[in-house]
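USER: For my understanding, would you kindly supply a protein sequence with its C-alpha coordinates?

ASSISTANT:
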Amino acid sequence: MYTLMLVEDEELVRNGIKRFVPLSELNITEIIEASNGEEGLRLFESHRPDVVLLDINMPKMNGLEFARKIKELKPNVKIAVITGYDYYDYAVTALKIGIDDYVLKPVSKNDVFEVLSKLVDKMKREEQQTMLQDVVMEFKTTMNNNYSSDDAGYKVSIAQIVEDNISNPAFSLTILADQMGFSSGYMSVMFKRLFNVSFQDYMVSIRLERAKLQLLISDMKMYEISFAVGFDNPNYFSVAFKKKFGLSPLQYRERIKDS
Protein backbone atom coordinates (compact mmCIF):
# COMPACT_ATOMS: atom_id res chain seq x y z
CA MET A 1 0.00 0.00 0.00
CA TYR A 2 1.47 3.34 -1.08
CA THR A 3 0.65 7.00 -0.55
CA LEU A 4 0.79 9.48 -3.43
CA MET A 5 1.17 13.23 -3.06
CA LEU A 6 -0.03 15.48 -5.90
CA VAL A 7 1.44 18.99 -5.82
CA GLU A 8 -0.15 20.91 -8.68
CA ASP A 9 -1.71 24.37 -8.71
CA GLU A 10 -4.29 23.42 -11.36
CA GLU A 11 -7.19 21.69 -9.62
CA LEU A 12 -8.41 20.36 -12.96
CA VAL A 13 -5.16 18.42 -13.42
CA ARG A 14 -5.31 16.99 -9.89
CA ASN A 15 -8.92 15.90 -10.32
CA GLY A 16 -8.17 14.36 -13.70
CA ILE A 17 -5.33 12.26 -12.25
CA LYS A 18 -7.48 11.07 -9.35
CA ARG A 19 -10.47 10.29 -11.56
CA PHE A 20 -8.95 8.77 -14.69
CA VAL A 21 -5.63 7.18 -13.67
CA PRO A 22 -6.19 3.65 -12.20
CA LEU A 23 -4.06 4.25 -9.12
CA SER A 24 -5.45 1.21 -7.29
CA GLU A 25 -3.71 -1.03 -9.81
CA LEU A 26 -0.43 0.31 -8.42
CA ASN A 27 -1.46 -0.31 -4.79
CA ILE A 28 -1.78 3.45 -4.29
CA THR A 29 -4.53 3.72 -1.69
CA GLU A 30 -4.10 7.24 -0.30
CA ILE A 31 -3.78 10.56 -2.16
CA ILE A 32 -2.65 13.82 -0.58
CA GLU A 33 -3.16 17.06 -2.50
CA ALA A 34 -1.50 20.46 -2.38
CA SER A 35 -1.91 23.47 -4.65
CA ASN A 36 1.51 25.03 -4.01
CA GLY A 37 4.96 24.16 -2.74
CA GLU A 38 4.63 25.63 0.74
CA GLU A 39 1.38 23.76 1.42
CA GLY A 40 2.91 20.63 -0.07
CA LEU A 41 5.94 20.83 2.21
CA ARG A 42 3.75 21.14 5.32
CA LEU A 43 1.69 18.12 4.25
CA PHE A 44 4.78 16.14 3.34
CA GLU A 45 6.28 16.67 6.79
CA SER A 46 3.15 15.28 8.46
CA HIS A 47 2.27 12.44 6.05
CA ARG A 48 5.64 11.35 4.55
CA PRO A 49 4.16 9.92 1.30
CA ASP A 50 5.95 7.28 -0.77
CA VAL A 51 5.55 8.92 -4.19
CA VAL A 52 5.31 12.60 -5.17
CA LEU A 53 4.06 13.91 -8.51
CA LEU A 54 4.60 17.67 -8.75
CA ASP A 55 4.47 20.53 -11.19
CA ILE A 56 7.87 22.04 -11.89
CA ASN A 57 6.37 25.54 -12.04
CA MET A 58 4.39 26.14 -8.84
CA PRO A 59 3.50 29.26 -6.89
CA LYS A 60 5.34 30.08 -3.63
CA MET A 61 8.06 27.47 -4.22
CA ASN A 62 9.29 26.00 -7.51
CA GLY A 63 9.27 22.26 -8.07
CA LEU A 64 13.04 21.78 -7.94
CA GLU A 65 13.33 23.55 -4.59
CA PHE A 66 10.38 21.57 -3.25
CA ALA A 67 11.97 18.30 -4.45
CA ARG A 68 15.28 19.19 -2.79
CA LYS A 69 13.57 19.88 0.56
CA ILE A 70 11.51 16.68 0.64
CA LYS A 71 14.55 14.60 -0.35
CA GLU A 72 16.26 15.96 2.75
CA LEU A 73 13.27 14.90 4.85
CA LYS A 74 12.86 11.46 3.26
CA PRO A 75 15.76 10.43 0.99
CA ASN A 76 14.00 7.34 -0.41
CA VAL A 77 10.87 9.20 -1.58
CA LYS A 78 10.20 8.75 -5.30
CA ILE A 79 9.60 11.95 -7.29
CA ALA A 80 8.32 12.69 -10.79
CA VAL A 81 7.85 16.22 -12.13
CA ILE A 82 5.24 17.56 -14.52
CA THR A 83 6.81 20.06 -16.88
CA GLY A 84 5.97 22.07 -19.95
CA TYR A 85 9.62 22.91 -20.53
CA ASP A 86 12.38 20.94 -22.18
CA TYR A 87 13.37 18.59 -19.37
CA TYR A 88 16.98 18.55 -20.52
CA ASP A 89 17.31 22.25 -19.68
CA TYR A 90 17.42 21.34 -16.00
CA ALA A 91 18.11 17.57 -16.11
CA VAL A 92 21.49 17.90 -14.38
CA THR A 93 19.94 19.80 -11.49
CA ALA A 94 17.10 17.30 -11.27
CA LEU A 95 19.52 14.36 -11.16
CA LYS A 96 21.57 15.99 -8.41
CA ILE A 97 18.43 16.51 -6.35
CA GLY A 98 17.30 12.92 -6.89
CA ILE A 99 14.23 13.38 -9.10
CA ASP A 100 13.39 9.99 -10.63
CA ASP A 101 11.31 10.80 -13.73
CA TYR A 102 9.17 13.38 -15.50
CA VAL A 103 5.92 13.85 -17.44
CA LEU A 104 5.59 16.40 -20.24
CA LYS A 105 2.56 18.64 -20.59
CA PRO A 106 -0.11 18.27 -21.81
CA VAL A 107 -0.52 15.46 -19.30
CA SER A 108 -2.32 12.27 -20.38
CA LYS A 109 -3.59 9.54 -18.07
CA ASN A 110 -1.38 7.00 -19.84
CA ASP A 111 1.72 9.10 -19.29
CA VAL A 112 0.94 9.53 -15.61
CA PHE A 113 0.16 5.85 -15.12
CA GLU A 114 3.39 4.86 -16.87
CA VAL A 115 5.62 7.13 -14.80
CA LEU A 116 3.94 6.15 -11.52
CA SER A 117 4.30 2.48 -12.47
CA LYS A 118 8.04 3.00 -12.89
CA LEU A 119 8.32 4.66 -9.49
CA VAL A 120 6.32 1.95 -7.72
CA ASP A 121 8.39 -0.78 -9.40
CA LYS A 122 11.55 0.99 -8.29
CA MET A 123 10.30 1.08 -4.70
CA LYS A 124 9.44 -2.62 -4.80
CA ARG A 125 12.90 -3.53 -6.08
CA GLU A 126 14.54 -1.46 -3.34
CA GLU A 127 12.32 -3.03 -0.68
CA GLN A 128 13.10 -6.54 -1.91
CA GLN A 129 16.81 -5.74 -1.98
CA THR A 130 16.64 -4.46 1.58
CA MET A 131 14.80 -7.59 2.73
CA LEU A 132 17.33 -9.79 0.95
CA GLN A 133 20.22 -7.96 2.61
CA ASP A 134 18.52 -8.33 6.00
CA VAL A 135 18.07 -12.08 5.52
CA VAL A 136 21.67 -12.55 4.39
CA MET A 137 22.96 -10.47 7.31
CA GLU A 138 20.82 -12.44 9.75
CA PHE A 139 22.14 -15.70 8.32
CA LYS A 140 25.77 -14.50 8.52
CA THR A 141 25.26 -13.28 12.08
CA THR A 142 23.81 -16.64 13.09
CA MET A 143 26.73 -18.49 11.53
CA ASN A 144 29.34 -16.13 13.00
CA ASN A 145 27.85 -16.49 16.46
CA ASN A 146 28.34 -20.21 16.14
CA TYR A 147 32.11 -19.77 15.74
CA SER A 148 32.83 -17.68 18.79
CA SER A 149 33.98 -20.22 21.44
CA ASP A 150 37.14 -22.18 22.22
CA ASP A 151 35.71 -25.04 20.17
CA ALA A 152 35.75 -22.95 17.00
CA GLY A 153 37.63 -25.62 15.08
CA TYR A 154 34.99 -28.27 15.72
CA LYS A 155 32.23 -25.79 15.02
CA VAL A 156 33.70 -24.80 11.68
CA SER A 157 34.02 -28.45 10.69
CA ILE A 158 30.48 -29.27 11.76
CA ALA A 159 29.06 -26.19 10.04
CA GLN A 160 30.82 -27.14 6.80
CA ILE A 161 29.45 -30.69 6.92
CA VAL A 162 25.97 -29.28 7.56
CA GLU A 163 26.36 -26.88 4.63
CA ASP A 164 27.45 -29.72 2.34
CA ASN A 165 24.36 -31.73 3.32
CA ILE A 166 21.76 -28.96 3.55
CA SER A 167 19.73 -30.44 0.67
CA ASN A 168 20.08 -34.05 1.81
CA PRO A 169 16.94 -35.11 3.70
CA ALA A 170 18.71 -38.29 4.87
CA PHE A 171 21.44 -36.34 6.64
CA SER A 172 21.34 -37.22 10.32
CA LEU A 173 23.21 -36.93 13.58
CA THR A 174 24.62 -40.42 12.98
CA ILE A 175 26.07 -39.39 9.62
CA LEU A 176 27.54 -36.24 11.17
CA ALA A 177 29.05 -38.28 14.02
CA ASP A 178 30.62 -40.73 11.55
CA GLN A 179 32.20 -37.92 9.55
CA MET A 180 33.52 -36.25 12.70
CA GLY A 181 34.79 -39.56 14.11
CA PHE A 182 32.61 -39.59 17.23
CA SER A 183 29.84 -41.77 18.58
CA SER A 184 26.27 -40.57 18.08
CA GLY A 185 25.80 -40.03 21.81
CA TYR A 186 28.97 -37.97 22.17
CA MET A 187 28.15 -36.02 18.99
CA SER A 188 24.72 -35.14 20.36
CA VAL A 189 26.17 -33.80 23.62
CA MET A 190 28.95 -31.90 21.79
CA PHE A 191 26.52 -30.38 19.29
CA LYS A 192 24.22 -29.11 22.02
CA ARG A 193 27.19 -27.67 23.91
CA LEU A 194 28.65 -25.92 20.86
CA PHE A 195 25.44 -24.62 19.27
CA ASN A 196 23.16 -24.30 22.31
CA VAL A 197 20.43 -26.16 20.43
CA SER A 198 19.76 -29.76 19.47
CA PHE A 199 20.99 -31.09 16.13
CA GLN A 200 17.43 -31.52 14.83
CA ASP A 201 16.31 -28.02 15.80
CA TYR A 202 19.46 -26.53 14.30
CA MET A 203 18.92 -28.30 10.99
CA VAL A 204 15.31 -27.18 10.78
CA SER A 205 16.27 -23.58 11.57
CA ILE A 206 19.12 -23.44 9.03
CA ARG A 207 16.98 -25.03 6.33
CA LEU A 208 14.11 -22.61 6.93
CA GLU A 209 16.48 -19.62 6.74
CA ARG A 210 17.79 -20.98 3.44
CA ALA A 211 14.21 -21.43 2.21
CA LYS A 212 13.44 -17.83 3.14
CA LEU A 213 16.37 -16.75 1.00
CA GLN A 214 15.15 -18.84 -1.95
CA LEU A 215 11.69 -17.29 -1.67
CA LEU A 216 13.31 -13.86 -2.02
CA ILE A 217 15.67 -14.54 -4.92
CA SER A 218 14.07 -17.31 -6.98
CA ASP A 219 10.82 -18.25 -8.72
CA MET A 220 11.03 -21.88 -7.59
CA LYS A 221 7.77 -23.60 -6.64
CA MET A 222 7.14 -24.36 -2.98
CA TYR A 223 7.80 -28.09 -3.31
CA GLU A 224 11.01 -27.37 -5.24
CA ILE A 225 12.28 -25.13 -2.45
CA SER A 226 11.25 -27.76 0.09
CA PHE A 227 13.39 -30.40 -1.60
CA ALA A 228 16.23 -27.96 -2.30
CA VAL A 229 16.70 -27.22 1.39
CA GLY A 230 16.38 -30.81 2.59
CA PHE A 231 12.70 -31.27 3.46
CA ASP A 232 11.33 -34.40 1.84
CA ASN A 233 7.77 -33.52 2.89
CA PRO A 234 6.47 -30.20 1.46
CA ASN A 235 3.56 -30.17 3.91
CA TYR A 236 5.91 -30.43 6.88
CA PHE A 237 8.08 -27.73 5.33
CA SER A 238 5.08 -25.39 5.05
CA VAL A 239 3.98 -26.05 8.64
CA ALA A 240 7.51 -25.54 10.01
CA PHE A 241 7.97 -22.34 8.00
CA LYS A 242 4.72 -20.86 9.29
CA LYS A 243 5.57 -21.84 12.85
CA LYS A 244 8.93 -20.02 12.66
CA PHE A 245 7.99 -16.94 10.62
CA GLY A 246 4.23 -16.57 11.18
CA LEU A 247 3.42 -16.92 7.47
CA SER A 248 3.25 -19.83 5.07
CA PRO A 249 5.94 -19.86 2.35
CA LEU A 250 3.37 -18.74 -0.22
CA GLN A 251 2.09 -15.94 2.02
CA TYR A 252 5.66 -14.78 2.64
CA ARG A 253 6.41 -14.61 -1.10
CA GLU A 254 3.12 -12.79 -1.82
CA ARG A 255 3.84 -10.27 0.94
CA ILE A 256 7.22 -9.53 -0.64
CA LYS A 257 5.61 -8.99 -4.05
CA ASP A 258 2.84 -6.82 -2.62
CA SER A 259 5.32 -4.71 -0.65
